[in-house]
Amino acid sequence: MDMSIAAMSVNMHQSQAMQDMGVAILKMAMDTTEVATEEMLEKLSVDPNLGAMVDIQA
């Protein structure tokens, strides 16, 4: 395996670029998941006044 320094440099930079892109995509996925989780928790939060008064008159 006889590679020139230039070829090794290109390969190294391509690998680094792919890794950087992968990290960026994972960060986007994490941000999206965080927002979705926050929205879901807001929708699931229960009104503290709900059920405080019950009308039992028929």
UniProtKB/TrEMBL annotation:
Domain of life: Bacteria
Alphabetical list of Pfam families matching this protein: YjfB_motility
Protein name (database record): Putative motility protein
Organism from which the protein derives: Selenomonas ruminantium
Taxon lineage: Bacteria, Bacillati, Bacillota, Negativicutes, Selenomonadales
